[in-house]
């Protein structure tokens, strides 16, 4: 299945080697979870905010073909 | 002994009195509220002599308390028609506190409407009123330059000023406050307080704090220990220690857009396709490439350092930030996806002296009328410079804000509560902030109870943003805490750390106790927040505000917002529960209605 991946702020540098920008489409085996993608990317072990299709999603959320996965470090402002 | 300095513009007299015992535990918002509540009749014309404009540093103003230099300004608002506290960074709060001034109150109104005054408070506390009629119509940056020339060798002072919008009584006029570099770029933006200042004939205020020490503490060692604890928490928390200093407030653009709550083209969509062009990440890259400053405090003593300067392609200063709210209002809400266009609009707002949020919401509404295309940044700038700054007939309508503009041009979708434009979070997919918009005595104001924390950012717990459950309780707790922080004079961004780190909360009442010598604890902090809100609610009730005024405009309940197709679904009963504590707090305070 194909999933759109977007990494923001300080997490942008964790896009796979050779990638620029902050978004790309990745191929994943069916049944892959959010947590597995995060582990694959080697994201730092710290609090983060994860959205799948614009809704918060826990690490055990199972991704589906065509999903958009967005990961943020802790951010705030206003 | 802290004092209240009163300047009556009717006869140009100055009176100084000690801060009354009954207000000895008040500062910032609590004190501006108390003075307006006690002294401004609810029936007062906001632009008439009965209204009073109050500037107050917080309880911790003038100290080394981290992020404790915020300024409150209070009055009856010409925009909302209710009580208003507008809040700003900049140097003025510390200067007032070092001068021993708990509140500077501008009263009355001059008989000569063409007179313009500069109020100067010297380091020895003496107050001088100087005619500056030649500054009539000047922008805030020109006023700042004029003051600089006038001050000569005196280098340490803070300024408070208005641009032409305030002089013309426009309802979206704000008040500029100088930052640590002297730029008049920090803003008491919301609620039209610039018009109140203009109605009093006051063009600018200079507060000289050269040679003045920080204020003394009841227990210096205990104060310093609490400061250390508080600063450590702010540095430790990922948001206040890393996210905000690195990317500034506009780091929010992407995450609010991702959540589908980034109001676009006058609240017609929750996502903006050009968000990447105006995101905090892009802003940082471009600012660094051009040699701008990407990390400084808006006031002395800030340890978060989320402010920055935008510079043009040649590296020349244009404006501060721009901040998240301004990038949204002047950007996404107008369909404008170019940071240079946004910065030019932000600079024009700063110089003319108009609130960036209300201006952007107004422009979005005007664009929705079909009279200007969404995305036309140059056209928007022309409206600000040629119509509003010059006070043309059109400019005077636009200058009164989003509601006046929407009504004049028959726009269906007018995003306001209590006549004030909604900030940068759509309340349909982020329902907790909708509760704050609907119920805050300030009108639509995100800072009054920043439910984005638990709704989107996973700070201070989590509450599903798309469901109505738990939102009223979330907003209520945050509104009380914010009333307290605004009264302490603390930047509300400390809340991100305070909500997650218990020691940070303890440090606030430890600092207050050590500084004032009064007994403060967790309960006393919350009581301060409740008393602040109670005065505001009772004042608005006396004016005639009803539960129906604590609602969002109908379209938020009816029009589905993409991408989540969300509508606002918090019940009226839940909205009406937010201020259920008011009768009990009022009884404890021994007040029932405004007046002495």
Describe this structure in words.
The complex is a heterodimer of chains A (78) and B (596). In chain A, strand 3 (49-52) and strand 4 (55-56) form a beta hairpin. Chain A has a single domain, classed as Ubiquitin-like (UB roll), CATH 3.10.20. Chain A has one helix spanning 34-41; strands at residues 2-7, 23-27, 49-52, 55-56, 68-72. Chain A is globular and about 35 Å long. Helices cover 10% and strands 28% of the residues of chain A. Chain A has a five-stranded mixed sheet, with no helix packed on it. Chain B is of the alpha+beta class and 596 residues long. Among the domains of chain B are: 3-208, Aldehyde Ferredoxin Oxidoreductase,  A, domain 1 (4-Layer Sandwich); 269-410, Aldehyde Ferredoxin Oxidoreductase Protein, subunit A, domain 2 (Orthogonal Bundle), CATH 1.10.569. Chain B has 25 helices and 16 strands. A six-stranded mixed sheet of chain B has the order 2-1-6-3-4-5. In chain B, strands 8-7-12-9-10-11 form a six-stranded mixed sheet. Chain B has a two-stranded antiparallel ribbon with strand order 13-14. Chain B is globular. Chain A binds chain B through residues 6, 8-10, 12, 22, 46-47, 49, 51, 54-56, 70, 72-78, and chain B through 237-239, 242-244, 246-252, 254-255, 258-260, 276, 280-281, 306, 323-325, 429, 446-447, 450, 452-453, 456-459, 462, 464, 466, 492-493, 496, 563-564.
Q: Which tags fit this structure?
A:
heterodimer, A: about 80 residues, mainly beta, Ubiquitin-like (UB roll), about 10% helix, B: about 600 residues, alpha+beta, Aldehyde Ferredoxin Oxidoreductase Protein, subunit A, domain 2, 6-stranded mixed beta sheet, 25 helices, globular
């Amino acid at each position: 299945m194909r999933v759109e991946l977007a990494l923001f702020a300080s997490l942008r540098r964790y896009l796979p080697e050779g990638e620029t920008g902050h978004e790309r489409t990745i191929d994943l085996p069916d049944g892959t979870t959010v947590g597995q993608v995060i582990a694959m990317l080697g994201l730092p072990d710290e609090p983060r905010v994860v959205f799948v299709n614009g809704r918060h999603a826990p690490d055990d959320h199972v991704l589906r073909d065509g999903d958009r996965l967005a990961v943020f470090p802790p951010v705030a402002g206003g | 002994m802290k004092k209240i300095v009163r300047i009556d513009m009717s006869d140009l007299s100055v009176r100084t009195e000690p801060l009354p015992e009954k207000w000895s535990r008040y500062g910032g918002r609590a004190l501006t509220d108390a003075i307006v509540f006690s002294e401004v009749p609810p029936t007062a014309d906001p632009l008439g002599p009965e209204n009073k404009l109050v500037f107050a540093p917080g309880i911790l103003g003038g100290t080394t308390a981290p992020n404790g230099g915020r300024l409150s300004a209070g009055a009856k608002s010409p925009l909302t028609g209710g009580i208003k506290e507008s809040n700003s960074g900049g140097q003025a709060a510390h200067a007032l506190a070092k001068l021993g001034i708990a509140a500077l109150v501008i009263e009355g109104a001059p008989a000569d409407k063409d007179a313009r005054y500069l109020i100067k408070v010297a380091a020895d506390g003496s107050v001088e009123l100087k005619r500056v009629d030649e500054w009539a119509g000047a922008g805030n940056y020109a006023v700042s330059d004029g003051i600089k020339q006038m001050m000569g060798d005196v280098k340490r002072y803070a300024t408070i000023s208005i641009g032409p919008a305030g002089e013309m009584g426009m309802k979206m006029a704000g008040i500029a406050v100088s930052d640590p570099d002297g730029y008049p770029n920090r803003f008491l933006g919301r609620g039209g307080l610039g018009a109140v200042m203009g109605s009093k004939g006051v063009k600018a205020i200079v507060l000289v704090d050269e040679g003045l020490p920080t204020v003394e503490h009841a227990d210096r060692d205990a104060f310093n220990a609490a400061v250390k604890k508080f600063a450590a928490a702010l540095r430790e928390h990922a948001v206040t220690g890393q996210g905000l200093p690195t990317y500034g407030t506009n780091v929010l653009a992407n995450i609010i857009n991702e959540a589908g709550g980034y109001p676009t083209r006058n609240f017609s969509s929750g996502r903006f396709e050009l968000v990447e062009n105006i995101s905090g990440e892009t802003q940082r890259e471009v600012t660094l490439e051009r040699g701008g400053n990407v990390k400084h405090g808006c006031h002395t003593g800030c340890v978060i350092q989320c402010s920055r300067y935008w510079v043009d392609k040649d590296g020349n200063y244009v404006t501060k930030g721009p901040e998240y709210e301004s990038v949204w209002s002047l950007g996404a809400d107008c369909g404008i996806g170019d940071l240079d266009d946004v910065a030019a609009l932000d600079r024009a707002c700063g110089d003319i002296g108009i609130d960036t949020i209300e201006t952007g919401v107004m422009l979005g509404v005007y664009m929705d009328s079909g009279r200007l295309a969404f995305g036309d940044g140059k056209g928007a700038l022309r409206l600000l410079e040629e119509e509003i700054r010059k006070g043309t007939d059109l400019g005077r309508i636009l200058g009164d804000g989003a509601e006046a503009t929407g009504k004049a041009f028959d726009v269906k979708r007018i995003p306001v509560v209590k006549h004030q434009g909604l900030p940068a979070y759509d309340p349909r997919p982020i329902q907790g902030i909708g509760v704050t918009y609907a119920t805050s005595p300030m009108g639509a104001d995100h800072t009054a109870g920043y439910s984005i924390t638990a709704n989107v950012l996973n700070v201070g717990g989590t509450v599903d943003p798309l469901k109505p459950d738990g939102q009223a309780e979330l907003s209520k707790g945050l509104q009380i805490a914010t009333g307290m922080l605004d009264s302490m004079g603390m930047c509300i961004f400390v809340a991100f750390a305070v909500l997650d780190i218990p020691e940070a909360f303890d440090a606030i009442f430890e600092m207050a106790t050590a500084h004032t010598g009064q007994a403060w604890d967790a309960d006393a902090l919350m009581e301060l927040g409740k008393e602040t809100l109670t005065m505001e609610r009772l004042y608005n009730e006396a004016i005639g505000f009803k539960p129906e005024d604590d609602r969002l405009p109908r379209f938020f309940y009816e029009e589905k917002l993409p991408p989540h197709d969300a509508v606002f679904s918090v019940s009226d009963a839940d909205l009406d529960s937010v201020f259920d504590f008011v009768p009990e707090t009022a009884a404890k305070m021994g007040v029932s209605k405004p007046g002495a």
